[in-house]
Amino acid sequence: MKNNLYQNKYRISSARLQNWDYRSAAPYFVTICSKNREHIFGEIENGKMILNDLGKQAGQYLININIYTDYANVVNFVIMPNHVHAIIELKNRTKEHKPNKFGPLLKKSLSSILNHYKGRVTRYANENNLPAGWQALFNDHIIRDMDEYKRVFDYITDNPKNWKTDKFNDTNYKQ
After folding, report:
1. Is the CB of residue 18 less than 8 Å from the CB of residue 99?
2. Which positions ≥6 away from 96 have C-beta within 8 Å?
3. What is the pTM of this model?
4. How far apart are alpha carbons 118 and 112 in whole angstroms?
5. Which of 38, 107, 130, 140 shows the smallest number of beta carbons within 10 Å?
6. From the CA atom positions of the chain, what is the Rg in Å?
């Protein structure tokens, strides 16, 4: 009865890799978008990201992941006007395998790290009467080899100067 209560009508299917344990040691490329892709972190000027107060805090909270955890390392990131890209390497060594599934967040998982991060940024915004909000989900990709790692690293680094053609630039969608 429980499984067919709403017949999956209100359930968003997961974009996560089905049998992957998201606590596993690996580099992950993540993208987190602001709600409605609003420009809440600053603006791009001449190919450079000019962070506002919330954007600066969003960057500092990513750096804090490296300082306050021993199981995650933010290798590269960029704060854009309406989204954040990062490479996050998890260093967990787990003996048990818990594949991705709907339910409570697993400690030291990618989802728990990003949930905490989004909460910290939102709390700062609320305490300082700044506009904020996140899309409910995030995009992730498990980086599988060094060529892909370099390509993603360079994409993140070059993202501000490529803003005019960026798929997250909402001006690209206006007719």
Report:
1. yes
2. none
3. 0.81
4. 10
5. 107
6. 17
Contact 22/106 with Cβ under 8 angstroms?
A: yes
Residue pair 27/87 in contact (Cβ under 8 Å)? The answer is yes
At the top level of CATH, which class does the domain 13-160 belong to? alpha beta
Conformation bin of residue 108: beta by default, left when phi > 0, alpha when psi is -120 to 50: left
Residue 73 CB coordination number (10 Å): 14
The dihedral through the CA atoms of 97, 103, 107, 111 has a sign that is positive
Separation in Å, CA 166 to CA 80, 120, 122, 138, 154: 10, 26, 25, 17, 14
Tell me the pLDDT band of 137, cut-offs 50, 70 and 90.
confident
pLDDT in tens, 85-94: 999 999 976 6
